[in-house]
Amino acid sequence: MAEISVPVFFFFLLCLLFFSAISEASKCSVQEFPVVRNISELPQNSYGRGGLAHTTVAGSLLHGLKEVEVWLQTLSPGSGTPIHRHSCEEVFVVLKGSGTVYLAPNSHEKYPGKPQEFSIFANSTFQIPVNDVHQIRNTNEHEDLQVLVVISRPPVKVFIYENWSMPHTASKLKFPYYWDEGCLELEPPPKDEL
Ligand SMILES: *[C@@H]1O[C@H](CO)[C@@H](O)[C@H](O)[C@H]1NC(C)=O
Ligand SMILES: *[C@@H]1O[C@H](CO)[C@@H](O)[C@H](O)[C@H]1NC(C)=O
Ligand SMILES: *[C@@H]1O[C@H](CO)[C@@H](O)[C@H](O)[C@H]1NC(C)=O
């Protein structure tokens, strides 16, 4: 009987683990996608958040983008994002409806503090500076709020706050984020940059 030496056995075991991890990691990516995609036909999901409809229009995990990711989100009246921050740039274009953006500039305090409030409206645009704690809410009770969102440095690493007086150090990392779950088992958790 042919004997398999212990190092060779472990080499094969490692290869097996490596390739199963790779296939696991890429199970969300779309291998073949058309150049032009009809946004109405892309998957849309609430990812368990009431009032949210999220579509990844162009993604790092889905479509192989390295520098940016684009989302289309619809928030029903009264709904909103969590209070959160991320170490990437983020640009919003409001396509429909109106609402409020709450922004606590990163003033190097121990916690975000009372945010500034800004009204947003159809055809308005705003950007969130890197690591500033923010929240977007549809504060118009009559109409959906629809936004196109561009982020840099995908996939997004989100730190979530329960309220504006919670210390930065107590914010909870959600990574992979809801729409990236199941795609990212290989990546080590990122370091907090605050
Ligand atoms: C895009 O998809 C929607 C929903 O399926 C459909 O109604 C629409 O006709 C499509 N647009 C084009 C140009 O194919
Ligand atoms: C948004 O603003 C641009 C520039 O003024 C204008 O051409 C466009 O029609 C506006 N869109 C809406 C939906 O108001
Ligand atoms: C904010 O959330 C923290 C963590 O859950 C809690 O301990 C604190 O009491 C909350 N503060 C306010 C003002 O609600």
TrEMBL record:
InterPro entries: Auxin-bd, RmlC-like_jellyroll, RmlC_Cupin_sf. Zn(2+) binds at residues 84, 86, 90, 134. One of its GO terms (cellular component) is endoplasmic reticulum lumen. It comes from the Eukaryota. Glycans are attached at residue 123. It holds the Pfam family Auxin_BP. Residues 1-25 form the signal peptide. The keyword Lipid biosynthesis does not apply. This is Auxin-binding protein. It comes from Fragaria ananassa. The gene is ABP1.
